[in-house]
Amino acid sequence: MRSAKLPAIGKRINFFLHSIRFRLVLWFAVILVIVLAAFSGFIYYNQSRDIQGESEYQLERKLAALDVTLTFTPNGILVPQGILQDTDVLIVVAPDGTIASKGPIPAQDASILAQQALQEHNDHPNSPDRYVTWTQGSHGPKADYLFVTVPIEPGHSGLVILGSPLDPNDRYGKLVFTLLAGSLLTLFIALVGGFWLADRAMHPVHAITQAARTIGETDLSRRLNMKGKDELGELANTFDGMVARLQAAFERQRQFVADASHELRTPLTIVNLETSRALASRRSADDYQHALSIIRSENDFMTTLVNDLLTLARMDAGQTAIEKATVDLSDVAVETVERLTPLSSRNGVRLETGDLPEVHILGDRQYLVQMLSNLVENGIKYTSGNDKHVCIETGGENGTAWIRVSDSGPGIPPEHIPHLFDRFYRIDKSRARTPQGDGLSEAPNGNGLGLSIVQWIAHVHGGEVHVESTVGVGTTFEARFKALMQK
Length: 487
Description:
Blueprint (H helix, E strand, L loop, with lengths): L1 H16 L2 H50 L1 E3 L2 E3 L10 E5 L5 E4 L4 H17 L8 E9 L2 E9 L7 E7 L5 H44 L16 H50 L4 H33 L7 E4 H18 L3 E4 L6 E4 L1 H18 L6 E9 L2 E8 L42 H11 L3 E7 L3 E9 L5
Parallel strand pairs: 9-11
Antiparallel strand pairs: 1-2, 3-4, 3-7, 5-6, 6-7, 8-10, 11-12, 12-14, 13-14
């Protein structure tokens, strides 16, 4: 049991050491250590200067008092009580080289200090008031001494050397302890607070992670709904937007599959019924011909539907190769009219052209012809009235080229216009397909994919398709593109 827990604990430790929270706190701790070290060094340096300056001031005051009261006797130096402390050191070097000392210092050390004092004094001949201050190693328990040297009389080699502990109250030690303890306490509090703040800051990230783990293809309705306006709130809102787009994409995919299945089910059912009817009993040649015509009509419909589905699938996957070159929209209009004139004649629709000035764009001629053909075929299918006609025009202005298809159909109610380019969308959803005996479907029974392809072709060419329609008058589709400037 214990051996099974060890890998889990190790995994948690490894995850923690590689987490953003740990790295944030680590970097924060490193920066804080550098700041505390710099601050402590600055405080220590300034306090050291203050302690040494205070010690020098006290020595100078004692030296000034000695200048008045100092007396030499055959037995040594006579100093009045109250001027020197027990830890102070006084050394006098007479002009004849005799050394007299007073304080907690052996004679041998006094001789060495006297020689050092003479050296320091000679090394600083221009010192103010002939004072020379210097620090010597320990001459008492746990204390460095500060010495002040001054000549007995100007122009003579005699010296008075007065020394006192630099830090008799161990203020340096207390200062170091205070700075070290304060820095460690500050660092500890900062680390604890840093982990707490990092945990709170990473809470939205944990929420996003948990949401991402629970979201699946069948459950895309969950949202974070975070109200924060900071970077993590923006990340959460972006995540919600991404999930919403994914949900919409999956819904479109499911709807697309359902619509495609529905569209294919009807012709397959018709083909199956006609085949079963023809095989059920012996029939006349006319009956067989009629059944085969219906089957051919349904086959043509399914072929067109499958080709359109394949085109849309390639478009969505980005597998469609667009070879752009300079294209004249008037040539596209003329080619489309030539291709679709037989279809318009068969349906009793007059296919005509308006003004076709030369306007050039950068595009793929084959796809532009397909786009315009879909628009014209729609016009031929749905136009009605005594004067059934479809008109194609081109033009350009202000750097924009356009191609327009107008028909005399029944028009489109305003509530349907925003959905015209949705896949499998039909205005009359109850319209039934009516295959004819000659295999051609005369009723307007498109598969609802033509305008989706039109919109995609326009978008891939950097254009837009606009619709204007008046019920009872007709409909106009206009595709607008960026025009090429002709030299």
